[in-house]
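Hey L., structure's done. Input below.
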Amino acid sequence: MDIVALSRLQFAVASLFHFLFVPLTLGLSILTAIFETLYVKTGDEDYKRATKFWGKLFLINFALGVVTGITLEFQFGTNWSEYSKYVGDVFGSLLAIEATLAFFLESVFLGVWIFGWEKLSKKAHALCIWIVAIASNVSALWILVANAWMQHPVGYVIRNGRAELTDFTRVVTQKFAILEFLHTISGAYILAGFFVMGVSAWHLLRKNEVSLFKKSFKVAVIFALIFALFEGLEGHMHASEVAETQPTKLAAMESLWNTESHAPMYLFLIPDAKHERNAIEIGKIPGLLSFLAFDNTSATVKGLKAFPKEDRPPVDLTFWSFRIMVGLGTLFILLSLWGFFVRNNIENHPGLLKLLILCIPLPYIANEAGWIVAEVGRQPWIVYGMMKTSQAVSPLIPTQIVISLIAFVVLYSLLGLADFFLLFKYARKGPEASMATAK
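Output:
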């Protein structure tokens, strides 16, 4: 493998591993804040114990997210120095704001929240976790704005052989950035909702802390349902934006080779040996792709053959990742609706409880599949239409990348095992038995 392929593989390993932790951190911070707010409002000790229980799982996950995020950002200097030199004026400013504003705010108030249970008033303590939750999500906003700029660069000029920022407001407020943020955040909230529902289901099946976990389930199922429905609506809006700004990605998402009006969508496709057309088509829905892309069933959608071969993204991986994401998203809506309608006596529905336990990994898969669509579908561009990935790598030798790649895989595997072991251990253990021991 050459340095481009190896650098891409290393960044893919680091980013996909990092994103195992980010969604749960974002969503569980909000849910923990909701539980503590309910405690402040009602005085119900179950909500205080729930806050401490889910907060402990949040802290375990948060620690791993921070560690993996730092190494990920370092790669822009180690593996992608040509990219950093060319667009650092734009990209670097966004990451700097994320670190100096959101991350430090989040970290400071997280410390206050951890050690302030008996030192602050109830309202002040609850305010701390809300600041942590908001800062966590603002941190994600800046990172996603930076990624959105790579997907659709705006607000810059090429001067002195590099991209220089000219319109910061346009970069931050462009439609692509807003939609990418909403799409990613909704996926994170769905994951956190299903995580809380799944863990609650495990305890409810065993009749353990029924009152506490039933309350946790009720909050989580409403949370998950709201954002599962919103994700479906926002996904359509996002697809329309992709059709306008990244037509090659849209064509790859649907394995559309020929430019067509009334472009169809398929549930499944099997390409021919040359991957230049589709040999087997299953579940054809005429005009649906045209409608999703342009709100018009007769609209013309460009196929992959309308673009040079060197500008086409990998089709199979993009196509199947998109179907995994959409298929699981549909499942999340159905399961959330089912859970919502039986939430008041959820303990009497063992079939659903067992299913929700099995479904805990599925939102992780859906989120990872979404990022594969976003990043693989953008290839061969690191900044769409502006700079190709092959132009962005550092002048390294393959051996250097192989050694660091192996080190990343080994280290991340150990960290991942530690994180999931601790999550499993404390999720299974449940909340402390009494308020005396919970303090």
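The chain is about 70% helix and 5% strand. The CA atoms of residues 253 and 285 lie 15 Å apart.

-- N.
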